[in-house]
Each structure stands twice: as structure tokens, then as C-alpha cells.
Sequence to fold (345 residues):
Amino acid sequence: MILRFNRYVLSICVAAAMLAGCGALPLSLSKGQDDIQPLPGPAFVRELSLPRKVQPDLVRSWIAPKAKQLDLLYVASQMTWDVDVYSYPQGKRAGKLTGFDFPNGLCSDTDGDVFIPDLLASDIVEYAHGGTSPIATLADTGQNPEACAFDSATGNLAVVNITSGLGPGSISVYTNASGNPKVYSDPILQLPYSGGYDDRSNLFVDGLTEFPSEGGVFQFAELPKGHSSFKNIMLDKTIHAPGGVQWDGKYMAIGDAETGVIYRTNGAGGKVEASTTLTGSDGDFQFLIQGATILAPSFYSSKVGFWNYPAGGSATKTLTIGSPYGVTVSMAPSKSLALGKEQLR
Fold:
């Protein structure tokens, strides 16, 4: 098993601690371990291996007064279990959202609303742009939400559930990002990890065929618009550890969290047309393409990097954040050009 799956296996096992596949869960999140020792038993998985908060939520959620007028970068930290907020693209601290049980991959809609999948709470919490209190909470009953994707064409929200209780994962699709979801599953893609819509409202998802300790390998699939079953896709490149999935305006981009390479594919055809290497990235389990910039959290190095896209290469800017995982940018709904350029003070 590739050692950099440590964080990935951890997230799975938190959600399904009693499954046999968690027997080889590492005792820490540190990379570079030569040996991975099994835990004493399933009952100890969560207690010994779940990353603990550095401190309780003694600070309430807050946002700087001027932040609502700016574009904002939201970053989920799995060291503090909070979501940190920064001005974008300046990267200046603008706030913090607290009170989550295990925030994961983030996404936002065209109104600037931010969706935060909370894995251990089995729900998705929605915040307005610059808001400090939820405006809605979507129940994802019996599921363990890992990531989400918003389809601007239909208004639908797809939530990728890495596991469903103690069983294989699923995809919950919320019509107009509200109400109760329709739940879809793929018998081959048992551990779905990340997803993204293309420009025709087709949903693409990556993940693993099963637990790594059981021989699971990377899998890519499409849920075509209007269909209820997945089409499994064979890529012409090997991906070692599933990363993010996002439409970049021309290609369906798929990340390899092990190598820091973003593959630009033709989607359902499985052909890799080009690639982008994020030099210096380190465990980028999710990424965000924002115009000519790609942002990726380096989980192991505790930083969020900004790279030119699609050129890649070395990061142009980094932010230090403890164990960053999910990122999204929320656009200010009605800001003026002057306010958009203003720095927080």
C-alpha cells in the first residue's frame, strides 16, 4: 500500500471503523513510515487514529467586517476541524468557521454560498458568502460525506460519500441543492472520493475499488445526466492516489494526490490530453481550478499553494494552515471593482 494513502485510509476508517479493511490503519498521519502496524482491534480505530482537535472550539465563528465585499477562500483544516477564511487572491486572514465534526472537501455555488460536508455528522452545512451562521443543513442520513460538487447549469449539488455507514460509499444528489437527495452507487467504485460536473451536467467521480489493504485500486466513473447508473472509465494513465475532479472549461481534470500531477482528460473517453505538475505539492487530496490559478492543499506539509494553470511548476504563493484538506473560493455576490481590490486591514 502506498504510504501516502495514510490520510485517505484514515478518513475511510473513521466512517467504517468496524470493517475488516481498517485493520492496517496507521497509528499516525506522519508520512514516511517504513512499517504500518495493525491496531489492536476495530474498537480502537477512532480513539487512537482520529486526528484530535488542537483545542476545543473556544472561539466562535467570525468574519472580518469587510470580508463580505471580497472574494473569499475557504480552507477546511483537519488539524483544528475548523474552516479558515482568507481574502482571495490576497490570502489575508478574514475569518474562521467552527463547530464541525470532521470537515472535508468543500464547494460553492454561483451565489457564493459555501457547502461544507461534515463526515462524522452525516450532513452538509451551507453558509452564505461571508456568513458566520449556517443558512441550511442538508441531511445525508446514513452517509459519510467526503466532498461535493455544484452544477451551475441545473443547480444540483452532488455529495460524494466515501462510505455509507459500514458499507461501500455512494453519491447523494440534491435537486436545487435542497431537500432530500437521490442516492446513487457504483458496485465497482466502492470508495468514491471526489467528483465534478462537466459543462453538460454529467457527473464524474474518482475513488477506489475497495480498501487499499484489500487490494483496492484507482477507479474513475461517470454518472451521465438523466441516468441512474454509472459508466466506469479506464484511463490511459496510472493514478496512484485519487485526488480532486473538476471541469476546467475544456477538460475534465483529475488529480493524483501521490504525485502532484493533474491530468486533463476528455472525460468519458478516458484519454489524457495533457498534464500539469504541481511542484512541491504534498498530499493534495483536493484542488480547485480558479481561472488561470489552481489551488491545492498540501495535507502533509500544512500549506495551501497557488500555482499557475495549466502551466504548473513551482507555487507562486503559499498559505500555512494545519493539515489543510478542502478548498473553495466564494465569489462576492455584488462587490464593486474598488472593494474587490481592497485589502483587509
